[in-house]
Design brief:
Elements (H helix, E strand, L loop, with lengths): L5 H11 L3 H10 L4 H18 L7 E9 L2 E9 L2 H4 L2 H17 L1 H19 L4 E9 L2 E6 L5 E7 L4 H14 L11 H18 L3 H19 L23 E8 L1
Antiparallel strand pairs: 1-2, 2-3, 4-5, 5-6
Helix pairs in contact: 1-2, 1-3, 2-3, 5-6, 8-9
């Protein structure tokens, strides 16, 4: 019997939405050939899911749940906004969020594996779990945008839930990449530095001042892309960090469709 690599099983599952065990069995029968395995799944009654495997899932919704100091965020993906508005789709998404906050991420993934095939069959298009995250903090704030296409969780070390929710709303609108300026990655900075150098060269800036200009650009980049140093959307002139009053942001999760 052909030994099937776990990555191959995961790949087939992501393409078909069929359970891990069904994928493994089909791959073993197909001798490890993924395309043949899809044909086998079609013949065994998983046809509709397998036929939808290549269709892009560019729609979906974000769901949330809170309980006992924990907050969960789930993004459930589908192909069309029509399905995203379906009551069955929304009920399943909320079930996943509730399961995450009560039982954990692994329980949610198991539930998806067990139930999502039925939802695919019922609604007639490819559906999959996009992202799932469970957070825990002394104070949590959750914001889901009115169209449910963006969701944010902010966890604070202290302070009020209203403050955490205000910061979550800000993050939904402004999409900060990092929590603090010093969190900016070397990789991101290097990419920007290449662009800045080209810009300065095109502008004919003298070599002796380029270093100083680059330092200024880096500082601005860090501050504009960090949550704590962005100007608070509800109160211009005040930074998000000013809202913290001694507490710290210990969790920041943002999902968007």
């Amino acid at each position: 019997m052909t030994t099937i690599d776990a990555k191959l099983v995961a790949s087939l599952r992501s393409r078909t939405g069929v359970s891990m065990m069904q994928c493994k069995d089909a791959l073993e029968e197909a001798g490890g050939d993924e395309e043949k395995a899809i044909e086998i799944l079609r013949k065994k009654g998983a046809a509709s899911a397998a036929k939808k495997a290549e269709r892009e899932q560019s729609e979906g919704l974000v769901f949330s749940a809170e309980a006992d100091g924990k907050a969960a965020l789930v993004r459930l993906d589908c192909e069309t906004d029509f399905v995203a508005r379906d009551d069955n789709f929304q009920a399943f998404g909320q079930l996943l969020a509730d399961t995450t906050v009560k039982e954990g991420v692994d329980a949610t993934k198991s539930l998806v594996e067990e139930k999502i095939q039925d939802l695919v069959q019922k609604l007639g298009e490819n559906i999959s779990l996009g992202e799932v995250k469970l957070t825990e903090a002394a104070v949590s704030g959750v914001y889901i945008h009115s169209n449910a296409k963006i969701g944010v969780v902010i966890g604070l070390s202290g302070g009020s839930a209203d403050t955490a929710k205000d910061i979550a709303m800000h993050a939904a609108a402004m999409n900060p990449t990092y929590v603090k300026p010093e969190d900016a990655s070397d990789e991101d900075l290097q990419k920007e530095q290449v662009i800045w150098k080209d810009q300065l060269a095109a502008e004919g800036k003298p070599e002796e001042i380029i270093g100083k200009i680059m330092a200024g650009k880096e500082k601005k980049f860090r501050e504009e892309n960090a949550l704590t140093t962005q100007e608070f959307v509800k109160e211009p002139g005040k930074l998000v960090g000013d809202l913290l009053e001694g507490s710290e942001i210990v969790e920041y999760v943002r999902f968007a469709v």
